[in-house]
Amino acid sequence: MPVFTPPPLPSDDKRWKIVNGTMRKNGFARHALIETLHTVQSSFGYLDDTAIRFVAQSLKVPLSQAYGVVTFYHYFSLKPPGKHTMTICTGTACYIKGTDKLVADAEKHLNVSAGNTTKDGQISLMTARCVGACGRAPVVLTDGQMVGQMSSEHMIEQLERWAVE
Ligand code: FES
């Protein structure tokens, strides 16, 4: 029997590693479909065709089944999020280093709760479970780029730049 090789990551955006991590943790088994789609949703803020195909291929489930799940649950969104995405890691190591404050400060600054996009469509605020860089906690992903030892001040500076970019 040929050995199954999972497809390559769609791009070098670090968020694909998080998605892949969820599948790997589940041995690329089909039952990981919903959990993996959740990881895509929470990391990217929505699921596009590339993401759905990548997950379906990696878990060897029919594309129609993956689309079926995404369209069935209201939790999933096919709509693109804001122009920029701030993803804050809320895994244990980052939590200990205070990411709950980062989340609270970002929510206050943007006037949206985590998982949502500002009204003008500029910025989506997302959270993710451990992004695999615990030694650099607290970690955020700014448009998919990992930044460690993040402070509220720096995060808000970034959000201010994005508000007009
Ligand atoms: S808990 Fe944040 S990188 Fe591991």
From TrEMBL:
GO molecular function: 2 iron, 2 sulfur cluster binding; metal ion binding; oxidoreductase activity
Protein family per UniProt: Belongs to the complex I 24 kDa subunit family.
CDD domains xrefs: TRX_Fd_NuoE
Annotated PANTHER family: NADH-QUINONE OXIDOREDUCTASE, E SUBUNIT, POTENTIAL NAD-REDUCING HYDROGENASE SUBUNIT
Gene3D superfamilies assigned: Glutaredoxin (3.40.30.10), NADH-quinone oxidoreductase subunit E (1.10.10.1590)
Family annotation (InterPro entries): NADP_DH_HndA-like, NuoE-like, NuoE_dom, NuoE_N, Thioredoxin-like_sf
Short name of one Pfam family: 2Fe-2S_thioredx
Key words, A-Z: 2Fe-2S, Iron, Iron-sulfur, Metal-binding
Protein name (database record): Bidirectional hydrogenase complex protein HoxE
UniProt key word Nuclease: no
Record: residues binding [2Fe-2S] cluster: 89, 94, 130, 134
SUPFAM superfamilies with a match to the protein in the record: Thioredoxin-like (SSF52833)
Highest taxon listed in the record's lineage: Bacteria
Listed cofactors: [2Fe-2S] cluster
Cofactor: record remark: Binds 1 [2Fe-2S] cluster.
